[in-house]
Amino acid sequence: MDDLLKRDATDQLAALNARRVSAVELLKAALARHEQTHGQLNAVVAVNLERALERARAIDDLRMKGETLGLLAGLPMTVKDTLDVVGLPASSGLRSLRQRQAEDASVVKLARQAGAVIWGKTNTPVMAGDWQTFNALYGTTNNPWDQARTTGGSSGGAAAALATGVTALEIGSDIGGSLRIPASFCGVYSHKPTWGLVDQHGHVPPSPGSWSERDLNVVGPMARSARDLRLLLSVLEGGPLAPRAPPADLKEARIALWLDEPSFPLDPEVRAAIESFAAELSAAGAEVTPIASPVHMPSLMGAYQVLLGGVLGEDMPPGMIRGMERLRGWARWQMSRGAAPTSTAAMTLAYTATHREWMAADAVRARLRHEIAGVFSRFDAILSPIAPITAFPHDHRPFGRRRLTASDGKAMPYTSMLNWISLATALHLPATAIPAGPSSSGLPVGVQLIGPLNGDARMLALAQAIEENVRGFTAPELAS
Length: 480
What we know:
Blueprint: H1 2-6, H2 9-17, H3 23-41, E1 44-47, H4 49-64, E2 76-80, H5 95-98, H6 106-113, E3 117-122, E4 134-135, E5 139-140, E6 142-143, E7 146-150, H7 156-163, E8 169-174, H8 180-186, E9 189-192, E10 218-223, H9 226-236, E11 254-258, H10 268-283, E12 287-291, H11 297-312, H12 318-326, H13 328-336, H14 344-351, H15 355-376, E13 381-385, E14 403-405, E15 411-413, H16 422-426, E16 431-438, E17 444-450, H17 456-469
Parallel strand pairs: 2-3, 11-12, 11-13
Antiparallel strand pairs: 1-3, 4-5, 6-7, 8-10, 9-10, 9-16, 13-17, 14-15, 16-17
Helix pairs in contact: 7-8, 9-17, 11-14, 11-15, 13-14
């Protein structure tokens, strides 16, 4: 059974449909794997075994009767603990949010309708607000490649569970890299959909029960293969995307390689791993062309900060926002003296932005979205880093005291984690995170395939072609 847990969801579903394994047996195997790894990882932090077993038995009965079943019928899976599930309300790392009744989030409802057996919730930082995964309620989630390091965040528990065979599919979310950074740090796949493609209702934040479709934020699939991303996205978007499709032809692929932006730091070992990966793509027949930044990134980062601050400020205590408003004069002075777009001063202005300032940022976004359309007239996808660094050691100090250290010893601001993910997020573009291979230190490095607006199917087809012809998922050597 351990061998089956190492296979992707498509193979597990084939085994279920062929009746080589029952839904109950596969669920129990996943639970055993969770129990085996929990002490090392702390990835799955809440379980509803009774409800899951009841669901698995019902699906087994329907399959025995020859009934028509959904795409995910009998597949055990977990979801990020920012999504409401009946019996397992989204805590988002806060005890107060756990003590309530909840209905299934929209995407959870769709997964259930497709036959998924949802049995657990994976860990997330408080209010999904960090590039590490820890909180006072459930503790710290460890990276399966090196338990002294973070899984990334905020879908960190999801990435760790996927990498170690605890689950074959996951539903995560992303507003500041939360699908892509954990995928990169743990060596798995994820897809940030075009904004608006997937319903956000039932995601916390915002407040439970909100019907707000938050700007920048998306809900999307995570998996151990590109074909599984397509399968799950076809369920979550509830529209015309086919659950299965042939891969793209790599020999016809035109890929823009973006590794250089003067204002974005990049660890030399991450750069080297991506350059090696790009060479593999070229050897497989793809046309890979290095490019400068596709748009003016300082302008984009300035706009992104205001747009992001407008969203995240809603979750902050009113007293904190009032305090920031009193600092706006100081923040403007700091910015006039050259403070960085990711500085405390910039964030102070972003969290307290006026509507006029938000409109100005949105106008910049509209202009840059128009400009990048010209890039996609020449290329099918932009291949770029996800994070400026590989998985870094756990660091639970206050944000302002955290620093990143590259392999050459150079320091980077902690907020550099926002840089490379900003293009797709700010412009609402789809981005598929795929493994690019190990760094020189042996840790996973991921890259993102950024596509044009509504180009989700094309990015997934390209990711599948790369997986089949170049490289795919490699499991960490966690004790089994």
